Amino acid sequence: MSIDSQSIVRSVDGDRLQADIETNASFGSIPVDKGEGRTVLTGTPANRAAREYLIERMTDAGLEIRIDPVGNIAGRYDPTTSQSSRAPVATGSHLDSVPEGGIFDGVLGVYGALEAVRALQDAEIDLERPVEVVCFTEEEGGRFADGVLGSSVACRKRSVESALALKDEDGTTLEDALTAIDASGTDQIDARSWDSWLELHVEQGERLESAGKAAGIVTAITGTVRCSIEITGEANHSGSTAMNDRTDALAAASELVLTVEATSEELVEHTSESLVGTVGSLSLSPNAVNVVPGTVTLGLDVRDVQTETIETVIDRVRTTLDRLEAERGVETEFERPYNIDPIEMDDRCQNALSAAAAAGDIDTLKLHSGAGHDTMHVGTVTDAGMIFAPSRDGISHSPREWTDWSDATATTRVLTGGIARLAGGLSE
Ligand SMILES: [Zn+2]
After folding, report:
1. Is 426 helix (H, G, I), strand (E, B) or coil?
2. Cα–Cα distance between 332 and 323 in angstroms, integer?
3. How far is the CA of 14 from the centre of ligand 1 (A)?
């Protein structure tokens, strides 16, 4: 291990990281019997408190703060040896939560990033690039939109105007919600200008725990296709309609559900073990015990790290719908309104993280992410990588979400070493 790697490992202060995460957990905290929970929706007093504490801690570390019109926060560490015109290495995550969420999701990535910068400062590592600590707005989509909103604006996938015009259930716009907590700024945060991006996040699965590894190096984030399917038969009296005289929409839909399951299992066995296919919603009309079902609407969600296997499931669904029309006399409608492509993590970022883990004697596992993250957007405009910390029992989006402090510290060490390598502070 080189002297620089050793000083990084020593400089990451697990107690300082824990204190920040625990303070953040007090904002929007909710009473629970088991675990520790919080509700931090964008534009609420809890969100304001969390943002203000972050800005205070970034300022304590000497970072130069910028806030953009949708409330994304960036704090820049520009060590004297770096030429500030060079593109920065950016790192971070989000501070908003789902309703009744846990204390680590997003928070570990933001405060892990800040701790990484403090460790680089303490270890007096010379860097060739600035480092930016970033907190994205409304990652969870708990109040506005479908999520990953702030990163979609920072990556110029969505305009500031269309984001600010989004409304919550009560008709309050994002613009008004941000104004209410003084959270919108006039600075530019443009992910396209970053040299690279790293996000530390809790795994939200059990693979690291099962493998007994302290850190995961993410290889890819799955793509997601969601479809809405409507099957129409004929509603009729369940007593007086003979079996050979029915067009039962639910019986037809049942065949479709089993096709999705069988096709997905077949692909997992032979083609891609990361594929998952789910019919997660179903509504039935008229939904009465004495009526042959007339109409069924199904929601299908298919995810994988490769597009081809997702399309195989979709093709099989469409073929099945054609067959059901021919064999069962139902009518079908198919829509796919939600399409997000899979994205591979950049080799340079994966290598920097792997080298950092090796230098710190931290055992890692390579794995993909089945959940979406801000990195999904950032990875389309610059080189991106992700580190996962183990989630106890794989639980997240719940007050029972937990990551051991030793794992939080270990993964922050991996993040710190990764940043140092990408920013030109460590050669090996
Ligand atoms: Zn998250």
Report:
1. coil
2. 10
3. 21
